[in-house]
Amino acid sequence: MGNDAHTPDAAASVDFEQVQSTEQFKELRKRHRSFVFPMAVAFLLWYFAYVLLADYAVEFMSTKVWGNINVGLILGLLQFVSTFAITGWYVSYSNRRLDPIAKEIRDEIEGHEFDKHGNRVSGVNK
Amino acid sequence: MIGIAAAVDVAALKDTTLLNMGIFGIFVAVTMVIVLRASRNNKTAADYYAAGRSFTGSQNGTAIAGDYLSAASFLGITGAIAINGYDGFMYSIGFLVAWLVALLLVAELLRNTGKFTMADVLSFRLKQRPVRIAAAISTLAVCFFYLLAQMAGAGSLISLLLGISDWGGQALVIIVVGALMIMYVLIGGMKGTTWVQIIKAILLIAGAAVMTIWVLAIYGFNLSSLLGAAVETANNPAVLNPGLQYGKTETSKIDFMSLGLALVLGTAALPHVLMRFYTVPTAKEARKSVVWSIWLIGLFYLFTLVLGYGAAALVGAETIKGAPGGVNSAAPLLAFYLGGPLLLGFISAVAFATILAVVAGLTITAAASFAHDIYASVISKGKADADTEVKVARRTVVVIGVLAILGGILANGQNVAFLVALAFAVAASANLPTIVYSLFWRKFTTQGAVWSMYGGLGSAIILIIFSPVVSGGATSMIKDANFALFPLSNPGIVSIPLAFFLGWLGTTLDKNREDTAKQAEMEVRSLTGVGAEKAVDH
Fold this sequence. Notes:
The complex is a heterodimer of chains A (126) and B (538). In chain A, 66% of the residues lie in helices and 4% in strands. Chain A has 126 residues and is mainly alpha-helical. Chain A has one domain (16-110). In chain A, a hairpin with a 2-residue loop joins strand 1 and strand 2 (69-70). The two termini of chain A are 30 Å apart. The radius of gyration of chain B is 22 Å and the shape is globular. Chain B has 22 helices and no strands. Chain B has helices at 2-5, 17-38, 45-50, 57-68, 71-84, 86-113, 118-122, 128-162, 167-218, 223-234, 250-266, 271-276, 283-314, 317-322, 330-379, 386-411, 416-430, 432-440, 446-465, 492-509, 516-528, 534-537. Chain B has one domain: Sodium/glucose cotransporter, CATH 1.20.1730. Helices cover 75% and strands 0% of the residues of chain B. With 538 residues, chain B is mainly α. Residues 1-6 and 534-538 of chain B have low confidence and may be disordered. In chain B, helix 8 (128-162) runs antiparallel to helix 15 (330-379), helix 11 crosses helix 17 and helix 13 runs antiparallel to helix 15. The chains are: A mainly alpha (126), B mainly alpha (538). At the A-B interface, helix 1, helix 2, strand 2 and helix 4 of A face helix 6, helix 10, helix 11, helix 13 and helix 21 of B.
């Protein structure tokens, strides 16, 4: 099974707790969580607000805006717009703020900087 | 406008049977050749389950769209909008917004920590055996509900095409369809299945695009006139407003919320969607695939709005309900109205391919889960070699296929989107809490995972059994009995919070602590992709 995710690799003898406690990793985790958590809360609130409006504010949702197009349809289509926008935003955020630092940590691990057996070989792969 | 509705003569469909079968036969032959070619290189377990992790993000994204845009999306949503108006649109929105949960919280982290199945991730830092078994059982249950819906869709579609309206004939159709699908998976494995998904996704989106433009052209590309025509045919202005289906009583309003909750939280917990993230080489490709699929899926759901109201305006709800296949026949009937037998044949072949591909994806997920998580890891305690594992997977395919056929015969006649929403509810209850907790909550323990998974799965299934879906109503699976003690048709609003609560409670009451080194490893791997990214970085 040549390309399994967990074939014995450079990560095999890594002290992950040590990696986890580095400032660099904490920064990565902070950047990831400080984006995805608020964003997840925001879009879920916006979605449930929409569901509740459709459920309990039928009159408001049925208000015609122009022609036969009513508030409900517009809000529904805005759900599409917000989904596309958040997707684009997340991708650009990951590319700028997450990927570079993740790659740095990965390179350090694979360069045996966190070897359990103490043979620290920094500077490899750089 | 009623005159136009009468233009769709359902009886005349029978005369086009030969043509339909011809188009359909060509499609089956072409895909079979592709599956055979793709499967030549299926050597290892990674090949069979994860297509050798050889797909690019955009290929995989298209395949995810193919997996996701099932009969529920095409036949189910179009039918729901055609008959219930705005309330049907809710499915489109829920099914799409749900992808943000997958994109932000699950896809990449999961790709970095797992191997083949959802259980790989869930059991990563917890006790292998209990968590793996629970995850495999919930995978099998979700796949079963999802398969049921696809089989019911296949039954509706073929019955419409062949004009079969008696129960026995439709059951026979489901059996034949099911057998054909089992063959695909047995031969093709994940690679063959992925190629079928890609082709089908392109055909489906293209077909829907053509019909959408056609419908819009009839109304001078004015959405407002299309909506006006739908109101006129239905003779009911309420089709444009929410509440036509779910606004009748307080109970049905709660049911609508329950549906909304299940839809938005279900996607990121569907085992066959999760498994797709393993067919790409890196987390970055996993992200790309989700982005790609969000665009494709979003576009498609915009089409369903036009198609649904188009069917309401041009075909009419009464004609749709009266046709063999009922509510699920809205899209094919619209195709027949627009482009006659040729377009009907094409659209039906595409719809059928959709079902075929989705069933293949589901079956392979269920089989992988059984062979990899239960057989290889638990029954033979890791001693089984890859060949035996794949052999077991293939046998599982047959068993699951047979079960799905039987379930599909029972569920025949129900709206496919509605049935799929049940699978979403089961997935969101059984899997999502454990996925989220194990990725983000350091203290989460085995007991929490096991309580949450069995509690969520059990409560969702029990509530479905005692719901109006199974008994007590005019459209229930078992019409002659009434044991519908639970008033809602979707269990999500009860079972999903319950599963989250049980995960928390089980962890809090657990005296055992999990291995902190494993937790560290999972967190570092999930965020950095170390180990999982090697092949590409160097």
